[in-house]
Amino acid sequence: VEPLKITLGLSYLATTGNSDTSTGGVDAKITWVTAPWTVEGIASYLRADQNGNLTAERTAAGVRGSRAVGARWDLFTGVSGVMDEFAGIDLRAIAEAGLTYRYLEGPVHSLAFDVGGTWTRDDPVAGATDSFPGGLAAARYAWKISDTAELSERLAFYPSFEDSDDWRIDSDLAVQAALTAGAALKVSYSVRRDNIPVASYKKTDTATSVSLVFKF
Fold this sequence. Notes:
This protein is 0% helix and 75% strand. By secondary structure, the chain is mainly beta. The radius of gyration is 18 Å and the shape is globular.
């Protein structure tokens, strides 16, 4: 296992003429492994403009640390934050902690389950700030299709312990194929479902992107 992995993804699309649009994004991931510890940091930024008007902007970042406590079990803790005014969120900050069970560990299929507790603080673009305890149930799957291609999915469920109707689901599906030893093409599709969104905002947001990923 490599002790340090760094990946950087870049995407951009622009049109001119009858339609003047531009969409760009960047995402980075750093993974540091020193047994029995693993630390992972992620950051992403997405922006879209149409005819000179900003139509989407989302910034997200997080760090998570885990420690192996058995052949297939890990303890984890982490913090993350999201800013997305077009979804009604000035800032959503989440602290989490729990337990991971690694059901499959490759080499072709990997599957792990997370279960734990969370503390969420929501600062909406309109209305009062809210803080509440909640839970986390997630599954992380990876399929090594070939020596150069991989499919991955992370599905996470965040229920609120204060209101059973207040829950969120995040899904991130991606297919990545190597172009060279240090670069790959990645196609991803993300779904964010907030069952009780900020007033006047929709419950579901989706994003599809194609990016070049560089490995260092």
